[in-house]
Amino acid sequence: MSGAFRGAGRVFDLSLGQLLWSRRTIFMALVLAVPVIIALVERLLTVGGITAMRVNDVRVGGATIFGLIIWLCLRVVVPILGVFYGTALIADEVDDKTITYLFTRPVRRAAVLLGKYLAYLVCTGLVVLPAIVIVYFLAVPFREVPGTFGALAIDVGLLALGLAAYGAVFALVGAVMPRPAVVGLVFAFGWEQAAMLMPGYLSRLTIAYYLQALVPHAIPSQEGVAALLQALIGEVPSPVTCVAALLITTTLALALGCRVVERREYVLEQ
Length: 270
Known about the structure:
By secondary structure, this protein is mainly α. About 75% of the residues lie in helices and about 0% in strands. About 5% of the residues have low confidence.
């Protein structure tokens, strides 16, 4: 086991630089520029004395706008990043015909996936989390920072949980299926969206259900937005249940992905 972790560390060192300077990271930075621009526009309008957003003729505060941005990030940005990074951890090596070079290194095959997954977490964390902090200080007035800073810490934790869960699930998809990006997009923006709208327990088979249930802590109910999110979620599980479900999903998907990589013979197309 210790050998596997040492091997994962070597693969992590090799992969992190590649991910940080990849086209995917440039794409990720462009996607994350959108909420930053939204928060900047809201701050400029507020400074100019213009109310940026109202719900039922009530002004929506900066903390609520930040909560909505976090909600949109969890529902859209995090799944996109999970798909395009997670599915590529093994699939890109197969497509580039470099998987055999990794497997001939003196490390276990599972260490390859584990090291690349850890590099994915660090890479996305280094780009996503600072952007969210910038959005927070743009959207939330300085006088509200002392009372809402704890919510920021929770939101950062939610984003990290979402990136970990989606990345692990899509790493498994990339290790098992051909054209995994297509499968990942169908899962994230087809199956999950449909399951969230269906009655019964199907929504509990999605990652979005548990992430979304944790979001409304930052949205004041008197401004009318929390009621809308509550209607979309339905019965809300407890925070402990949500966190446990996300951690179990992450661990199980990553373990299955490592098992697949250990046992599967990857046939490279000529």
